[in-house]
Amino acid sequence: MFMNRSNPAVEVMILRKNIKGINQRILVRGKKKKRYIHFDNAASTPALVPVLNDMSRFLEWYSGVHRGTGYKSMVSSRVYDDCHQVIGRFVNADPDRDSIIMVNNTTEGINKLSYRLHLKPSDVVMTTDMEHHSNDLPWRGKATVVYVKVDKDGVLDIEHAASIFRKNYPRVKLLTVCGASNVTGHVNNVHLLAEMAHEYGARIMVDGAQLVPHRSFDMKSHSDPRHIDFIAFSGHKIFTPFGSGALIGPREVFTQNPPDYTGGGTVKIVMKKKVYWSDPPDSDEPGSPNVTGTYALARTLTYLSRLGMDKLQEHEEGLTSYLLEQIGRIPGVELYGSTDRVGVVTFNIKGLPHALVGAVLCYEAGIGTRTGCFCAQNYVRHLLGLKENHEHLKLYDQNRNDKIPGMVRLSLAGYNTREEVDYFLQWLKDIVQNKYEFKQRYKFFIEQGSFAPVDFTGGSLVDKVYKRCMKGSVM
Ligand SMILES: Cc1ncc(COP(=O)(O)O)c(C=O)c1O
């Protein structure tokens, strides 16, 4: 279907055509309607129409899986089991040696692993100063957590990683690191880090939440020193907003029982005083699993593989370089991070709160971005050159997003276009040039914790849109 095309624009346009809601129009300030631009893909990406169509077809056959004796259950069980293999193949997992465990999202996957490794307080887990909270907090309290430093641009200090391995050998059991940062987009050389970890007898876990959606990823063979032992990623960041994600890693890790969550589906035999646990992945997928979400993820990954992840990557990289270069020319805009990155760009405009910039982009331009700390407070604080400040708790308690330090983030995906980026750049220039006017036009609403134009409240606009899209539904 998608054979032999050399121009990435063709793949981009195919993807774009298949994005659900790509032509959604919204009301902006001045009672104008504009086509919504989604530059918040690092949070979640939209769904794909062909996958939705296939889901609808699959739902004709949908039933609860495993141990059902009806045709629908038997078909659904087979689909569900096969989908595990499709998902594993996307990152080149070893079907004989790895378990592909379906979870809700990356956060659940990392938490699961933090329990399944059965760590002791004297074991060392190395994480880094550039992690999302989801790859930091789950490790705390289960082992001694040591953080690899980053430089002033937020780039991981590989030498520091090596020195931690040396100093703590043989106590380091795991290095857990993001494949790409959700704040700077910076891409880590995880295969080099894997080699280092293995040299010191440790394993590596890659938080793939921001990498897997942007670049084709290869866990590599178990015999390769650069092999990635574990990876976790979320479907909703790769065009599958149906509550599915995956944790992949060596089967033997998931046979050390009991699992972290127990219950139906995790067992072979239950006696009053003895339990025989299921083999993975069943042991680690307690309760009735998310069959439709798993189907949707597998179907999406097949779609993307056929379309060509490399083509989408090439396009996204070109767009990101262009965006960085153009923003860099606008005086008064401070950019964060360095160059090797996925399509994540964070910045601040001098003299304007990040939340106000986000509000102007939303209410005037119809562009969806994200502002704040993106669940990576230590990293953002570091990039902003700030120290930890306990007084900031008051700002959080009081919903003062106008005062909490942070940034504005644009995050691109393979379907975004140069026209969308140019349109954003025009608005950015306008905001920089007319910042005092925008400051007067907007008010901070403490109940919502956000800015909105004084001539209408953000709440009422959202109410209108909410009513419109829910019209006819049970809500
Ligand atoms: C780098 C990174 N890791 C982990 C997560 C957590 O992902 P999820 O919310 O899907 O569990 C995110 C979410 O933004 C992320 O960007």
User: Could you say which small molecules are bound to this protein?
Assistant: pyridoxal-5'-phosphate
Count the domains: 2
Radius of gyration: 23 Å
User: What is the fold-level CATH name, i.e. the topology of the largest domain?
Assistant: Aspartate Aminotransferase, domain 2
The backbone outline, from C-alpha atoms, is globular
Tell me the strand percentage band: 15-25%
Number of helices: 14
What integer is the average pLDDT?
Answer: 95
| Structure class | alpha/beta
Annotated CATH homologous superfamily of the largest domain: Type I PLP-dependent aspartate aminotransferase-like (Major domain)
Low-pLDDT segments: none
CATH architectural label of the largest domain: 3-Layer(aba) Sandwich
| Total number of beta strands | 19
* N-to-C CA distance: 39 Å
CATH class category of the largest domain? Alpha Beta
Largest sheet: 7 strands, mixed
Structure report:
- With 475 residues, this protein is α/β, with parallel strands linked by helices.
- The chain has two domains: 200 residues, Aspartate Aminotransferase, domain 1 (Alpha-Beta Complex), CATH 3.90.1150; 256 residues, Type I PLP-dependent aspartate aminotransferase-like (Major domain) (Aspartate Aminotransferase, domain 2, 3-Layer(aba) Sandwich).
- The chain contains 14 helices and 19 strands.
- The protein has a seven-stranded mixed sheet with strand order 4-10-9-8-7-5-6, with helices on both faces. The protein has a four-stranded antiparallel sheet with strand order 13-14-17-16, covered by helices on one side. A two-stranded antiparallel ribbon has the order 1-2.
- Helix 3 packs across helix 7 and helix 8 packs parallel to helix 12.
- It is globular and about 70 Å long.
- It binds pyridoxal-5'-phosphate.
- The site of pyridoxal-5'-phosphate has 13 residues, from helix 4.
